[in-house]
């Protein structure tokens, strides 16, 4: 699993960046995305950040990418809505 968190001051750039990340994962919190881990996906994300976004960042913007191993992911404690994230949901009409 990859956790990617960002702090981008420009509203327009931040919106473009979040839409870009939606192609690869889902939003956990406003500026935190969970992305299924694969070397190829991570390489694509890093390349796109370097090519499309990095030159537009200011000295107050930041992005952190955390690679979480499967063992560490199993040790994660979740509360609230987050604890239902890994469960299958069934809807009946």
What attributes does this structure have?
4 strands; alpha+beta; globular; 23% strand; 34% helix; 93 residues; Alpha-Beta Plaits; metal ion binding; nuclease
Summarize the structure in words.
Keywords: Antiviral defense, Endonuclease, Hydrolase, Magnesium, Metal-binding, Nuclease. Its cofactor is Mg(2+). The protein has helices at residues 11-22, 39-53, 70-74, and strands at residues 2-7, 25-29, 32-35, 62-67. The chain has 93 residues and is α+β, with helices and mostly antiparallel strands. It has a single domain (2-84), classed as Alpha-Beta Plaits, CATH 3.30.70.
Provide a brief overview of the structure.
With 93 residues, the chain is of the alpha+beta class. The protein contains three helices and four strands; from the N terminus they run βαββαβα. The chain has one domain (2-84): Alpha-Beta Plaits (2-Layer Sandwich).
Helical residues, percent: 25-40%
Mean pLDDT: 90
Gyration radius (Cα, Å) is 15 Å
Using the coordinates above, name the CATH class: Alpha Beta
Number of helical regions? 3
Strand content: 15-25%
Structural class: alpha+beta
Numbering strands along the chain, what is their spatial order in the largest sheet? 2-3-1-4
Q: What is the CATH topology?
A: Alpha-Beta Plaits
> What is the helix/strand order?
EHEEHEH
Question: Uncertain regions: pLDDT < 50 for 5+ in a row?
Answer: none
Taking the alpha carbons of the first and last residues, their distance comes to 33 Å
Subunit structure: Homodimer, forms a heterotetramer with a Cas1 homodimer.
Pfam families: CRISPR_Cas2
EC number: 3.1.-.-
GO molecular function: hydrolase activity; metal ion binding; RNA endonuclease activity
């Amino acid at each position: 699993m990859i956790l990617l968190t960002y702090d981008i001051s420009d509203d327009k750039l931040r919106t473009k960046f979040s839409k870009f990340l939606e192609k690869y994962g889902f939003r956990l919190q406003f500026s935190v995305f969970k992305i299924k881990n694969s070397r190829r996906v991570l390489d694509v994300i890093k390349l796109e950040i370097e090519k499309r976004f990095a030159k537009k960042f200011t000295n107050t913007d930041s992005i952190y990418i955390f690679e979480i191993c499967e063992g560490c992911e199993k040790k994660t404690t979740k509360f609230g809505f987050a604890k239902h994230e890994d469960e299958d949901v069934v809807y009946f009409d």
